[in-house]
Amino acid sequence: MLFASFLGLGLSVAIVGPTFQDLATNVNRNISSLSFIFVGRAFGYLSGSVIGGLLVDVMNYFLLLGISMLATTVGLYLVPFCKTAVLLTVMMCVFGTSIGILDTGGNVLILALWGDKGAPHMQALHFSFALGAFLAPLLAKLALGPTASAENCTEADFHHPALNRSSEADSEALFGVPNDMNLLWAYAVIGTYMFLVSVILFGLFFKNSSKQEKTRASAQTSRRAKYHNALLCLLFLFFFFYVGAEVTYGSYVFSFATTHAGMKESEAAGLNSIFWGTFAVCRGLAIFFATCLQPGTMIVLSNIGSLTSSLFLVLFDKKPICLWIATAVYGASMATTFPSGISWIEQYTTIHGKSAAFFVVGAALGEMAIPAVIGILQGKYPDLPVVLYTSLGASIATGVLFPVLYKLATSPLDHQRKENRKSEDQKALLSSSGLNEYEEENEEEDAEKWNEMDFEMIETDDTMRHSVIETSRSSSMEPTAEIYNQYPSNALVFESSPVNTGSHMKHLPETRTKGTNT
């Protein structure tokens, strides 16, 4: 259901571009004066990311995602009925808020379900978004049919008398049936899809509400890196440069190819398509790569690919073959960085709603700020490939930031390993000292047993001595001949007994001395 949600998210975000001409016609404005609806949507997306980060820590995941999907459905149904530019901008802001909540909540839910083992699932989640963004123009093409492109429409086209209504007329009708019903069908199809997904998410909420508490209980005892805040700040900058460069190249590569590289419009469109095509394909392949490669390894490979390809773009900016190859490599290199970054940071510190919202806001700010600045610079310096310089600069920035991130994330682990080794040595010493005490106790027990055996032997020798004495006395009263015959044997017995007794008496002090020394 998460993948289905992000498929709808990609459809919802990307449908605005192909239908922008029809939206402008619907509110009787030209394209240049209606571009601020994207600012409204971006502002709503930022707000939604923050709100989603706060709510995802206190609300049920499925309930929050279901509400955001339902709000997106309402926005998609109402956008074609907006008849004023101000109302359309407000609706886009609300629409952006709902998709911001959905984006933040979906990423956090993937981490909550699979943790640091969820790299393939994270790649699949963002591939679903790319797939939706790829399908949206096709859906718009089927619904709207062939229309004039935005580049071929001039401002005079929008000042037709039939379309130029007065401000009073605009104020009378805030909502109305769209001029082109195909526009309504394009948004209604996506809205219906989002509604169905939201219903299933609400069903999951009622079914799995008890499991949510178990997930939160396990998350409360999760790990936290020593430099948690520093890692989040650097990741904020990392995603700021990465997403800004991605959106900038995808937005300006067409104009760069036509004005700077001298390509035809069809060739420039193909160059733009190959960038997003390799981007989407590699996100799909990354699902399988993530099962055998660590997220950090994938980030390093992506950084190497983006740095190499952007360098070739700068060096060979007017050679078509190099532009085609380097653009394809650049799109493939940019595909896995964002989901891999989220999976990588989860290995070292647990990401909750607020943390996810923080770096998602960084990505959204990069998406807003960098393309706007590059558009201004490109207008001032039309002879310079500012877009390519931006790609190279962002690749250098991400290539420098990630080793710093890795160092901060792993240095406490090295210290922890040393502490674990010390504790293991202490346990080994304690166990060896316990073994020595056990051996000493066994020796003391053996000494006590030997002493008892010595006392028993002494008592036995005393008994034998008394019996010999009694026998000798009785023998003295017998005839002399018998005394003469028995004397040697009795004497031997009598003389041998004191010797044996003395030997045992000498053994006793030695045994006690041994026990005392022990």
Automatic annotation (TrEMBL):
InterPro entries (UniProt xref): MFS, MFS_trans_sf
Region (Disordered): 415-448, 495-518
Bias (Acidic residues): 437-448
Name of the protein this chain belongs to: Major facilitator superfamily domain containing 4B
Membrane topology label: Multi-pass membrane protein
Domain of life per record: Eukaryota
GO cellular component: membrane
Gene3D superfamilies linked: MFS general substrate transporter like domains (1.20.1250.20)
